[in-house]
Amino acid sequence: MTFPNPPVVDADGLTRHYMLPRESLTAAPQRVFALNRVSLTVRAGRSLGVVGESGCGKSTLARCVMALEPLTAGTLRILGKDPHAMRSRALRRHRQNFQMIFQDPFGSLDPRHTVGRIVSEPLEAAEKRLGPDERRGRVREVLEAVGLRGADMSKYPHEFSGGQRQRIAIARALTTRPALIVADEPVSALDVSVRAQVLNLLRDLQDRYGVTYLLISHDLSAVEYACHQIAVMYMGRIVEYGSTEAILADAAHPYTRALLDAVPRSSPERRRARTTLKGAVPSPTEIVSGCPFAARCPLVEPRCRLQAPEWREVMPGHGAACHLV
């Protein structure tokens, strides 16, 4: 009997609220509901792509998984341990198991430091037992793994192109040999010609090291190429979640369909009538009693504005959809 890969990320009901500054002393405090009861699982050696419009909560989810943001509610386990329940010293040791790639390859690298120092920083924080020669060898290994040279250790970030800088950022994430890499829009700041190279690199590194990815992106084409599963977010909630193949072939939620229709299609036979969303996006400070997508949904019914949607399985193990679809 074969068992599925063990979970690297296991999130249940993740919720994150932000308190806004009061406009006056007499004004009532307001909260931004960035994440609302988000649950997901990413298994070892697999990739989950989280997609949605700007402001839907994707980056907040990434920061909460990395324990860079506290949770308002919910539980998170990475390799069976809750990083939000750890003291700083234990979290520092555990953090070597999960690293992050940031969106901006220009802003995420310190221009005053050499590439060797930038890439070795996680080692200095997480694996202090390693000597200078071992650290240097590890840095050389990961630089060569991402397509750079060991001699690049003595150079500075300004001497590299945008794609090469993102390779440096990927090397920095790899240096502690993590089980999980959270990539927040890793190719959105790159030229189109370079994006494919970086996505190919991420896939090659997954095959070589068995790393697990949580990929945050608004680019469905990138997620289709790089991820085994997709989670579609809207207003801080996951509205559809399943295998990439199943969702792209037959999306169940009208919001997912609208996202897919917005992807440019080069082949005339693949073109179809596009779904245009109308209506205003609810305020993130507003508590929506019914479905958060009701104001823009082409299939809306009166009850959608009064009660939260029920969910049903579309196909076992593939996804879930609103009961009205």
**Helicity, as a percent range:** 25-40%
Reported for the largest beta sheet, the result is: 6 strands, mixed
Oligomer: single chain
Secondary-structure element pattern, one letter each:
EEEHEHEHHHEHEHEEHHEE
What do these coordinates show?
This protein has 325 residues and is an alpha/beta fold. Helices cover 29% and strands 23% of the residues. It has nine helices and eleven strands. A hairpin with a 3-residue loop joins strand 10 (311-315) and strand 11 (319-322). The radius of gyration is 21 Å and the shape is globular. The two termini are 36 Å apart. Mean pLDDT is 85; it is low at 311-320.
SSE layout:
Layout: E1 7-20, E2 30-43, E3 47-51, H1 58-65, E4 73-78, H2 88-94, E5 98-101, H3 115-126, H4 132-145, H5 162-174, E6 180-184, H6 192-209, E7 212-216, H7 220-226, E8 229-234, E9 237-243, H8 244-249, H9 254-261, E10 311-315, E11 319-322
Parallel strand pairs: 3-7, 3-8, 5-6, 6-7
Antiparallel strand pairs: 1-2, 1-4, 8-9, 10-11
Helix pairs in contact: 3-4, 3-5, 4-5
